[in-house]
């Protein structure tokens, strides 16, 4: 994005009725609503959503957590996050390292087997803050999936769809591995993925006999076993968190999440993230906000606006691409990312921009939190 574009974010005065009304509700007699810039507006809109993701983590808890290092930190962070989110050990997803993840992904939630995968190559090298907030992000996807499963009507449909997807994924994996490797090596590969040896043996037998009907039946029967397990898991979630009735006010949102989970294709054929698709999906927007709330708590800052603006200026100083701000600021109204990536400008212009930003930061705002 060009420097002029960013400058306009601060110069342009925005009079947004709905945000102003909401802010006045939160802070009566406020003066901060006067003369909002585009950036203020975006950040206030986020601020208003933050209570939904609040985890009541104290600065002392963050300090204690940061005493841990390496894998211990990751596990302790996971304990703290799941405890604060009220996720019982019986239903929370298990954490796994993955050695064959797409290079662009640091972590991912897999609804098919209810696990969170961390990229073994990249995740350990991230900062503690990054690890903390990414775990929170993936846990939000888990919460979305959990709400789908505990819904009276959509939960039933989810059992069917997850089973179908499970069979499909299993078939694809076997087709690919047995095409790629000789039988002995393929068997070894599946064993390393933790697949049941009895299942592998049966598959190999049918594969050698070229019995495709038998193979289909084998997958179908494994699918029904999977469905049974998933039903058990669903019952546990309902017992733990309660059933969401079909006439609940949450139903439209859960239905939307369910449809999005079924169509998650955020990647271009070249393996790069399709930002437009990614930021337009409600499940991602929700997970990103949860991630931001965790980032805010991790920063131990009191005022959200101060935190958010600091964050923004740090990104400018470090000249990092404004990846996560793309959604709110760098997208044009149609939600299509601008084709030009954020490019650093000569230092003098850059300094001018920072001064502008700092003036903006000095605006007094004391928000309740
Ligand atoms: Zn996500």
Whole-angstrom Rg = 24 Å
Catalogue the ligands: zinc ion
**What is the chain-wise order of helices and strands?**
HEHEHHHEEEHHHHHHHHHHH
Count every helix, treating DSSP H or I runs of 4 or more residues as helices: 16
CA distance, first residue to last residue: 33 Å
Q: What is the helical fraction, as a range of percent?
A: 55-70%
Shape: globular
What do the pLDDT scores average to? 77
- The unreliable regions are 1-15, 321-352, 355-369
In terms of DSSP E residues, the strand content is under 5%
Major sheet size, sense and barrel closure? 3 strands, mixed
Structural class: mainly alpha
Total beta-strand segments: 5
Name the quaternary structure: single chain
Strand order in the largest sheet: 3-5-4
Keywords:
single chain, two-stranded antiparallel sheet, three-stranded mixed β-sheet, mainly alpha
Task: Please characterize this protein's 3D structure.
With 369 residues, this protein is mainly α. The protein has a domain at 161-241. Helices cover 61% and strands 5% of the residues. It contains 16 helices and 5 strands. It has helices at residues 3-11, 17-26, 38-49, 59-65, 70-84, 128-149, 154-180, 183-192, 197-208, 212-241, 251-262, 275-280, 282-299, 304-317, 326-330, 347-362; strands spanning 13-14, 36-37, 94-98, 107-110, 115-119. The chain has a 3-stranded mixed β-sheet, with helices on one face. The longest helix has 30 residues, at 212-241. Residues 1-15, 321-352 and 355-369 have low confidence and may be disordered. Zinc ion binds next to α6 and α13.
């Amino acid at each position: 994005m060009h420097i002029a574009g960013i400058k306009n974010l601060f110069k342009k005065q925005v009079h947004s009725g709905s945000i102003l009304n909401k802010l006045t509700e939160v802070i009566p007699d406020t003066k901060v609503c006067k003369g909002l810039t585009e950036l203020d507006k975006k950040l206030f809109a986020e601020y208003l959503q933050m209570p939904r993701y609040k985890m009541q983590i104290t600065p002392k808890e963050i300090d204690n957590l940061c005493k841990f290092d390496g894998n211990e930190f990751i596990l302790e962070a996971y304990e703290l996050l799941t405890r604060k989110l009220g996720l019982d050990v019986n239903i929370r997803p298990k954490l796994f390292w993955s050695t064959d993840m797409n290079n662009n992904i640091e972590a991912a939630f897999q609804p098919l087997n209810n696990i969170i995968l961390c990229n073994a190559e990249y995740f350990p090298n991230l900062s503690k803050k990054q690890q903390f907030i990414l775990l929170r992000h993936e846990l939000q996807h888990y919460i979305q999936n959990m709400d789908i499963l505990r819904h009276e009507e959509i939960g039933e449909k989810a059992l069917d769809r997850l089973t179908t997807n499970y069979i499909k994924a299993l078939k694809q994996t076997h087709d690919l591995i047995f095409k790629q490797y000789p039988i002995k090596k393929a068997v070894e590969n599946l064993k390393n993925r933790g697949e049941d040896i009895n299942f592998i043996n049966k598959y190999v037998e049918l594969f050698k006999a070229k019995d495709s009907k038998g193979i289909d039946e084998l997958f179908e029967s494994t699918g029904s076993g999977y469905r049974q397990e998933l039903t058990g898991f669903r019952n546990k979630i309902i017992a733990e968190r309660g059933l969401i009735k079909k006439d609940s006010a949450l139903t439209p949102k859960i239905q939307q999440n369910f449809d999005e989970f079924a169509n998650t294709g955020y990647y271009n054929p070249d393996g790069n993230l399709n930002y437009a698709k990614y930021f337009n999906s409600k499940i991602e927007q929700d997970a990103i906000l949860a991630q931001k709330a965790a980032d805010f708590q991790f920063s131990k800052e009191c005022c959200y606006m101060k935190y958010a603006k600091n964050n923004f200026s740090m990104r400018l100083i470090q000249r990092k691409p404004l990846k996560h701000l793309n959604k709110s600021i760098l997208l044009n109204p149609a939600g299509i990312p601008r084709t030009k990536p954020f490019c650093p400008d000569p230092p003098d212009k850059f300094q001018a921009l920072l001064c502008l930003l700092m003036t903006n930061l000095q605006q007094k705002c004391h928000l309740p939190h």
